[in-house]
Description:
The chain is mainly α. The protein has one helix spanning 20-50. It has a domain at 25-49.
Amino acid sequence: MTTAPKPQRHSGPGHSAEGSDRSAYAFLAPYLVLYCVFMLAPVLWAFGLSLQTGGLLEGTS
C-alpha cells in the first residue's frame, strides 16, 4: 500500500513565512530609532519652539 505524499507549503508572493515578520522588524528597528531621534524629534521640537512667545532680542523680565 502506498501513501499520498504530504502537501508542501509554499510561501508565495504576499505570504510570509512564520518568522520572517519578526526578523523584518528586527532589521527595521535601528533605522526607526535613528529616524525618530535625528529627524522626527528636531521637527517636533522646532514646532514647539515656534509656538513660544518672545524672541532673542527681548528681555527676560
